[in-house]
Amino acid sequence: MTLSPKSFELAIDGGIALITLNRPDRLNALTFEVYGELRETFRSLEHASEVRAVVITGKGRGFCSGGDVEGIIAELFAKDARGLLEFTRVTGALIQSICELRRPVIAAVNGVCVGAGAVIAAACDLRISSDRARYGYIFPKVGLSGADMGASFLLPRIIGRGRAAELLFFGKIIDAAEADRIGLVNKVVPTEQVLPEAMAWARELAQGPAFAHSMTKQMLESEWTMPLAAAIEAEAQAQAICMAHPDFKTAYEANKKKEKPAFEGAPAPTATPAADGGGRA
Length: 281
Fold this sequence. Notes:
This protein has 281 residues and is α/β, with parallel strands linked by helices. Helix 1 (32-45) runs parallel beside helix 3 (81-100), helix 5 (151-159) packs across helix 6 (161-170) and helix 9 (210-222) runs antiparallel to helix 10 (228-243). It has eleven helices and ten strands.
């Protein structure tokens, strides 16, 4: 599968798609073009069977500093209500595309991670942070709701409602140590180790059971609003589907031989096992 974005770098190798935001002079601030191409790239990766894990990072000192002040913010004042809504829907669609991609997505946060950049990181499944990174959902600082691009959906699920409310109401910037303390990030490492660590995680995931990983991501998403009984039934269906997949026997045979399993199964298609017994994945 060939993808050729113009507004950032994309490399696919060894089952890993590496996305590198490439506007270091602007701390990788987002433009209208970047929003659109990122969204379409994540959507397209759903159909790239060779991709088993995704890493997103930034070039230079920043992961992403949010929307570009000159390239986006200044232009918003010329838009009417319909134009503003069209823009906010575009930004939210990017987050949705990350969440709906049935591959593990790792944010390698190499530096400043604020505004829309912080929401992108929250949309990822795993976050490895530079010890110099700073995080902030700074929308209130410019007179906007803290609930932007899905932030008020994502953050409570990562750090709890109380801490999410604190970040979204005050818009304060926190350092990597505080992000680690409250559970916003999975791991903090020196800056030069951020991308290597993220790629190591991605390689391990890429060598694992792609079908089962995609099912895991799907269930993490779909079970959030289910009652317990429905969640248990959905997991029963999902696990039965995984047990019928060749990867399960591959792991069994490798274990008997005391070898590392070589999983070859493709990621699962996007579907949710139904709690009523009628679902398929």
